[in-house]
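Dear U.,

For the methods section draft, I wanted the exact inputs and outputs in one place so we can describe them consistently. I've listed the two proteins in the order they'll appear in the manuscript figures. Please don't edit the token lines directly; just add comments below if something needs changing.

First protein:
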Amino acid sequence: MSAPHRFPATSRLLHWSMAVLILLMLFIGVGMVTAPDSYHRLVSIHRPLGVAVLVLAAIRLVNRQVRRPPPLPPAMPGLLKLAARGSHVALYALMFAVPLVGWAMLSAGAYPVVLFGGLTLPPIAPHDAHLYAALRGAHTVLALLLFATFLLHLGAALAHAVIFRDGVFQSMAGGGEGGPGYSRASRALKA
């Protein structure tokens, strides 16, 4: 193998930036409902970060189409490959759904989505109290699903790094030589 299979630097930067943003968003969201005194301050951070997640998800999706991810290890069982693809589809769907439902919820509640610098996004749903309530519940459920999917993704990444040691984790972490199918043994033989 002439070169390790790695995600391009742009893909890695988008991946890790979004991981931090999503975790931050989830913790701010929990803080908004558990710390009423900080609600307004946290919401003023949560809204623009939600828009940032939405924009970065769109950029990331385009980037993924332009810069295809490296292949999974050939020895990886088909069921695990299917699970990996399914979890990525779920992550992308939720990275779009959570902020869009949040924006629609705020629109239905007649709350403006104010970004940094005072820029206000237009409403994307009609003002309706019943719709607001339904979207609020949906936003919470979707955010919890995103968190669960995020944790599964993290668990799988750690399994690839610690148990399988198949280079999948290194292909996104960017550290050392590695990549799908590029095992320690093949690196040792190359040396």
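Second protein (the one for the lower panel):
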Amino acid sequence: MQERYRTDYEGEFVVTGLKIVNGRKQQEREFVENPIQVKSISGRATCVSNGDSSKRIHLNRLTKYHGVLNTLPLNVYTTGDLYKQVHGNFHVTFNVDNLQELIESKLTEEIIVYTSTTQCLKFPGEFFIIPYSYKSTEEAVAAYLAAFDGHTEVFLLGYDQFKTDGTRRTKMIESMIPVLKAYTTTKFYHVVSDSETPKEWLPHRNLKTMPLMEYVSYCDIS
């Protein structure tokens, strides 16, 4: 993974199909312009997954403005089916059932939803492609997008899940490492309640552990 930012992103070509020319396969490609401009007064973003720490806070509190004169608003990147609990600014999911429900509930009109290029082509106008077609877990993609969008502080809330499922937990932990390595100037905070930061993340100096109540106070979440 390379350290890239939306400020330098004009868009990209995506493969929309294949055709046979003189007996050879050729890709049909279309240029998709960057449709999103992300603004942040505070430079802070929270990425939310469905772990223990995110279950110990009323998630709709994250979408309110905070601080004196509303100087500390958070951009919120949710994952999985958390759109059922909170309507953040951005959402990442690759689950087909989630995508269908987002369309049927018309939440795609309120939330910017990122998913695979295949699903974007299948449902034109509903979803957004992930810049540079980055493929990983939903948690890692959300963190990548928060850094890519230029936030200087990114809080990882609920990234302590899958305690009883070693395979899924290992996959989530490992998927975050390329993001931490690429965005060394971004400050990541692993928000925890009664869990610990994975040992695999500890060597990365751009990541710190932050207790849940300290996060609530630091971001003035009321």
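Candidate sentences for the figure legend, describing the second protein: The mean pLDDT is 86. The longest strand covers residues 11-21.

Thanks,
Y.
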